[in-house]
Amino acid sequence: MTKNVKVYSTETCPYCRRAKEYLNENNIVFENLDVGKDQQKAQEMITKSGQMGVPVLDIEGKIIIGFNKEKIAKELGIQQ
Amino acid sequence: MYDLIIIGAGPAGITASIYAARKKMNFLVISKDIGGQTNWTKNIENYTGYLFITGDDLVKKFSEHLKRFNIQIKEFESVTAVEKEEDFIKVITEKNEYKTKAVIIASGRTPRKLGVKGEEEFRNKGVAYCATCDAPMFAGKDVLVVGGGNAAIDAAIQLMKIANKVYIADIDSQLKADPIMVEKIKNNEKVRIYNNSSLKEIYGEKLVSGVKLDIKGKTSDLKVQGVFIEAGSVASSNFTKGVLKNEAGEIFVDCGCRTNIEGIFACGDVTNVPAKQIVTACGEGTKATLSAFNYITRKK
């Protein structure tokens, strides 16, 4: 079953870019939310993760802070 | 057993890897990330061949170069110890243990923490160490940059485009950054520079709401929602044992990137080489691999 994946990111953050590249390489469909431009989404990210660092991934409600490849792979069943 | 293990994949480690791949050495790269400090640098105007490039784009170019070779990389793995045994060197990480004939330490530097009240508590809750990553979160807000070197002014340049007010607290009487960078912020009405000033405390509830600054001996209160700490960096060399270092923890190397221990080499910002520049780190990475290659060839 496809999981609902959201990536809270900023345009300039290298780890956000790498996280998105990693998802793309593994054919994971995700919604990209630019928290540098969308204040409401930024607030949503802070509420969900309790902090302001990007990227934050929301995988079906499971919150992953930072580009943590192992955690992302585990949550999405990506073979490493 | 590997011929060589390279610890770190910033400009020094990546260049060392490219040379090792071209020498067809049996080697492994272990690194917490790809790109190191270059990831956090927004504007690069002094890397030969590029009038301007962002750190992110340069890391992309470095990665492409690295991927042209079939290099074994253990990313997201941290080295906890490097130990010299009689016939080999042991590299221990939090996950594994590896044996190798030679090691290149290219572990770079990490941002210096100030150790002030609230710094740890509000980390990523208004306190940031990477303007390139986090600046966009502070659009329309008031922020403080701590520091006066190139990294601090680079952060201020990024922030003044989006923030409401950018305060700079610098411990010295004059900014140390390159004049060409200082010119970019000097006449911006959003920017206010406090010389001879230091950060004393960061406070807030869930997120940062203000700081206490010591400005020329007087304590002042400043309402800010973000604090960017750009007060230099420290060498990431804690995991090394027996390798001679200076007081700042930088590994002593000779002109061939050799340390005091046979078979252990070091390059880039983790060493006592004074110019902490991307282009310097690349050059040092080259020297380290060529020295390591000679060492192994001689040993065989």
| Order of H and E elements of chain B | EHEEEHEEEEEEHEHEHEEEEEEEH
Number of domains of chain A: 1
- CATH fold-type name of chain A: Glutaredoxin
In CATH, what is the homologous superfamily of chain A?
Answer: Glutaredoxin
Spell out the CATH superfamily of the largest domain in chain B: FAD/NAD(P)-binding domain
| Overall CATH architecture of the largest domain in chain B | 3-Layer(bba) Sandwich
Low-confidence region ranges of chain B:
none
Distance between the first and last residues' Cα of chain A: 19 Å
The total beta strand count of chain B reads 19
> Distance between termini of chain B?
13 Å
**In percent, how helical is the residue content of chain B?**
10-25%
**Second CATH tier, the architecture of chain A:** 3-Layer(aba) Sandwich
Strand order in the largest sheet of chain A: 2-1-3-4
The count of strands of chain A amounts to 4
What's the gist of this structure?
Chain A is α+β, with helices and mostly antiparallel strands and about 80 residues long. Chain A has helices at about 15-25, 40-50, 70-75, and strands spanning about 5-10, 30-35, 55-60, 60-65. The longest helix of chain A has 12 residues, at about 15-25.
What's the structural blueprint in terms of helices and strands?
The complex is a heterodimer of chains A (80) and B (300).
Chain A: E1 5-9, H1 14-25, E2 31-34, H2 39-49, E3 56-59, E4 62-65, H3 69-76
Parallel strand pairs in A: 1-2
Antiparallel strand pairs in A: 1-3, 3-4
Chain B: E1 2-7, H1 11-22, E2 27-31, E3 43-44, E4 53-54, H2 55-67, E5 72-75, E6 79-84, E7 89-93, E8 97-105, E9 109-111, E10 127-128, H3 131-134, E11 142-146, H4 150-160, E12 165-169, H5 179-186, E13 191-194, E14 197-204, E15 208-215, E16 218-222, E17 226-229, E18 233-235, E19 264-266, H6 278-299
Parallel strand pairs in B: 1-2, 1-8, 2-5, 8-19, 10-17, 11-12, 11-17, 12-13
Antiparallel strand pairs in B: 3-4, 6-7, 7-8, 9-18, 14-15, 15-16
Helix pairs in contact in B: 1-2, 1-6, 4-5
